[in-house]
Amino acid sequence: MSAREWIGKDFYRELGVSSDATQEEIKKAYRKLARENHPDANPGNAEAEKKFKAVSEAYGVLSDPAKRKEYDEARQLFGGGGGPGGFGFPGGAGAPGGFDFGDIFAGAGQAGGGLGGLGDMLGNLFGRRAGAGAAGARAQRGADVETDVRIDFAESVRGATLPLRLSSPATCATCGGSGAKPGTSPRVCLTCGGAGLVSRSQGAFAFSEPCRDCRGRGSIVDDPCPECLGEGVSTRTRTLNVRVPPGVEDGQRIRLAGQGEPGRGGASSGDLYVRVHVAPHPVFGRSGNDITITVPVEFTELVLGNTITVPTLDGKVSVKVPAGTANARTLRVRGKGVHKRDGTRGDLLVTLQVVIPGNLNGKARAALESYRDAVADEDPRPHITAMVRERGG
């Protein structure tokens, strides 16, 4: 959607948030409304489908910081009323006695003078430079779409290809996006000559505004497509194969260019953003490109040393524990971590955690008591003992 067509739309109201809402609040509101009005959850409900399209359109603008800034500037510049009259102009768009300011500056260069440089200065606010052709007035890029997928821990490490089923606006398959019933074609609007814009004078100024007969499209559909009702866009269910790259992290977004809502007037489609949620693993954790694991060991294994078997995502590996290893020490196993884009892998970090037995049989207790007596003259905490004696004496 071009900024020119934001006039008269209150995206904040569509999502039920304030104009100073944070990105997280906007995302939360969108997900709630999209879930409630999703076509899969409301089969045959035209109102729910209409609301789903509206909140998707609103989120496509407000979720993009650059588009949101541009939208807010347009609201501020033109009064930002957000009511039925659009951006606060008397009478609203197309009302008797009022002005439709949807393209007041964008077409100034076509009118032969008038606002002149002011139109050039503000042209980008409405998606094109002043004096651009009619195609620029009608064309609008499709909105971006966001969805979520859940994968397991192993898939996040190795990468995966997942089928993704989407119900979203797409180019109508029945009419091919023309909006006209198969076998018919849209006709050129006679009012604007296909330009989508009409010019008129107001005192010393000349204004260009969207044609009211064709709503700025440049063409009129006399016999609408029964599938999309003349819009050229319909909600359909499609399946995409999404490649999740190795090493993807929880919350990361994957961009699929051109897989969002279709554009209008020959403009490109929006993008699809897939947010990945990684399920936690009961044994393994992750630290950057390294996989972590905590392995219980016996006290004697740390003191005397041992070779232990440790599980990995690929099977198992033997890890040597040197004699005299301290509790909670982390040993590194090279190349058993997360797959990287350059073809290498991170490491497996094995943290050793001594296990304290809750119950001892007689033989084990006797052995420990013998050990205690054998090291009775060795103080494991000499600096602490010295401090105690100093303060006590």
UniProtKB/TrEMBL annotation:
Residues 159-237 form the CR-type domain. GO terms for biological process: DNA replication; protein refolding; response to heat. SUPFAM superfamilies: Chaperone J-domain, DnaJ/Hsp40 cysteine-rich domain, HSP40/DnaJ peptide-binding domain. Keywords: Chaperone, Cytoplasm, DNA replication, Metal-binding, Repeat, Stress response, Zinc, Zinc-finger. A zinc finger (CR-type) spans 159-237. Its main location: cytoplasm. InterPro entries: DnaJ, DnaJ_C, DnaJ_domain, HSP40/DnaJ_pept-bd, HSP_DnaJ_Cys-rich_dom, HSP_DnaJ_Cys-rich_dom_sf, J_dom_sf. GO terms for cellular component: cytoplasm. CDD domains: DnaJ, DnaJ_C, DnaJ_zf. Its cofactor is Zn(2+). It holds the Pfam family DnaJ_CXXCXGXG. Homodimer. Belongs to the DnaJ family. The J domain is necessary and sufficient to stimulate DnaK ATPase activity. Zinc center 1 plays an important role in the autonomous, DnaK-independent chaperone activity of DnaJ. Zinc center 2 is essential for interaction with DnaK and for DnaJ activity. Participates actively in the response to hyperosmotic and heat shock by preventing the aggregation of stress-denatured proteins and by disaggregating proteins, also in an autonomous, DnaK-independent fashion. Unfolded proteins bind initially to DnaJ; upon interaction with the DnaJ-bound protein, DnaK hydrolyzes its bound ATP, resulting in the formation of a stable complex. GrpE releases ADP from DnaK; ATP binding to DnaK triggers the release of the substrate protein, thus completing the reaction cycle. This is Chaperone protein DnaJ. It comes from Amycolatopsis arida. The lineage of its organism: Bacteria, Bacillati, Actinomycetota, Actinomycetes, Pseudonocardiales. The gene is dnaJ.
